[in-house]
Amino acid sequence: MTQSPTTAPTVVLVHGAWADASSWRRVIPHLLAKGIPVVAVQNPTSSLGDDVQATQRALDSIEGPIVLVGHSWGGAVITEAGNDPKVKALVYVAAFAPKVGQSVGDLVGAHESPPALGKIRDDGAGFLSLSAQGWVEDVASDLPEDEARVLAVVQPPFPASAFGDKITEAAWSTRPTWYVVSAEDRVVSVALERELAAMMKAKTTELKAGHLSLLSMPDAVADIIIDAVNATGAVA
Fold it and tell me: For residue 211, which of 39, 74, 75, 195 sits 20 to 30 Å off, Cα-Cα?
């Protein structure tokens, strides 16, 4: 009897707040060059539940094992959506990883506020955005200024209420986990990133990068994702 070949995992990429799936545009080519199937989820960033639903639709469309990757707010999304049985590994990139009953707001409030959070604007209807100065100085601090300003222009608003949405089941408690710490992050507390990585017993890599390491150091981020893929035993 001939044994069927191992199915290669699909990498599913989940973006953060004030962003969209194009956040992964420099990581994706590195994965495709290795023959790794990739799906980048276009989340609405309207609530944790909405984003988990959108991510789940992407997971439902895939046959075989999945490595689920989240950046920033996307870490909370993969913490919940990653409970799908097809998800075999999780990769957090400068990302939040709440416990059961915990929200992203709880994690943020437990640490000294990073510089970017002082540059958030409320539109008066409960939706938040980051000032252009915040993008240039904090969010995209290691990207060219013209690119940071474009990111500021195209950012979607993010509802303040989403920071209170709580996790009901934490996928990282039952799956192997990788964590990419951005050592020069000015959006998410670096101390929090290290604390989360240690809590999850994640295989941890620190990059000398700002919050958007997936754009400033895409080859390094891709290498970590590839390590997670290879650890599932799938890519020949």
Answer: 39
Query: Under 8 Å CB-to-CB from 159, ≥6 apart: which residues?
Result: 45, 46, 47, 126, 127, 128
CA distance 123 to 109: 22
CA atoms of 117 and 108, how far apart (whole Å): 10
**Do 78 and 14 touch, CB atoms closer than 8 A?**
yes
Contacts of 132 (CB under 8 A, 6+ apart): 148, 149, 152, 153
pLDDT in tens, 6-35: 578 999 999 999 999 999 999 999 999 999
3-state secondary structure of 48: helix
Strands lying side by side in the sheet with 66-71: 38-41, 10-14, 66-71, 87-93, 177-182, 203-207
Task: Check: pTM over 0.85? Answer yes or no.
Answer: yes
For CA atoms 11, 20, 136, 138, the dihedral sign is negative
Do residues 94 and 72 make contact, with C-beta atoms less than 8 angstroms apart? yes
CA distance 45 to 59: 17
For the chain, count helices (H), then strands (E): 9, 9
